[in-house]
Amino acid sequence: MADEEEYDNNAAGEEEEEEEEVEEGVEEEEEPEYAEEDEYVGVGGSTEVKLFGKWSFDDIEVRDISLVDYIACKGDHAVFLPHTAGRYQMKRFRKASCPIVERLACCLMRKGRNAGKKMMACRIVQHTLEIIHLLTDQNPVQVVVDAIINSGPREDSTRVGGAGVVRRQAVDMSPFRRVNYALYLLATGAREASFRNLKTTAECLAEELINAARGSSNSYAIKKKDEIERVSKSNR
């Protein structure tokens, strides 16, 4: 009988110890949960929008006052990826609110075989920005903006007259068309430079943008712009 009582006492003691250990384990597990929540609340603050998680839009400056409204790179137009899937073609002038880097990517989707391949265009733009940063040590978004400002013709010539009497008349180019034309010239220059060439499209586009941002005549876009302005000057 005495042996049975001792066995019962020992069993009861072991159960109490196990319960105490379980309670201690629960208490220990609960503590880090509160700590993690506190850490999460502390870390989760403001999130700065950076293109591809690298390039900030905060310090971007549009140096031409007439193009500020048409080069979308600040505020709501700052994006992580140049792929917003917006329907910018549905209404006139709506594409002015499309992020400028996305517009550059869209201009690369040309010549049939590249039509609709926006992921490829985004990848080319990403590689281009990396190359620009390595070569210039500047924010590549600023280089793109400067290239667009320098590449847009300010004057063009149009056909005036009819009934067989046609002459060309010089006209001022609107800011919106300047941006559109600059993007077209930059993309065309990069495409022609990379065609039948060992250089990739990203390398050619980076070179084109850097030369255009510097105003160098080595840029296809700058050469075309000067030619257009020269012809229109002779038709004033």
Question: Descriptors for this entry?
Answer:
236 residues; mainly alpha; two-stranded antiparallel ribbon; 56% helix
Helix content: 55-70%
Biggest pleated-sheet summary = 2 strands, antiparallel
Radius of gyration: 31 Å
Q: How many beta-strand elements?
A: 4
How are helices and strands ordered from N to C? HEEHHHEEHHH
**How many angstroms separate the termini?**
124 Å
The overall pLDDT, averaged over residues, is: 84
Order of adjacent strands in the largest pleated sheet: 1-2
Strand percentage: 5-15%
Bulk shape: globular
Helix-strand makeup class: mainly alpha
Distinct helical segment count: 7
Query: Low-confidence spans: pLDDT under 50, at least 5 residues?
Result: 37-45
Describe this protein's structure.
A two-stranded antiparallel ribbon has the order 1-2. A two-stranded antiparallel sheet has the order 3-4. Helices cover 56% and strands 8% of the residues. It is mostly helical and 236 residues long. Helix 2 packs across helix 5 and helix 3 packs across helix 6.
State the gist of this model:
This protein has helices at residues 2-43, 100-108, 118-136, 140-151, 175-194, 201-214, 220-234, and strands at residues 50-51, 55-56, 155-162, 165-172.
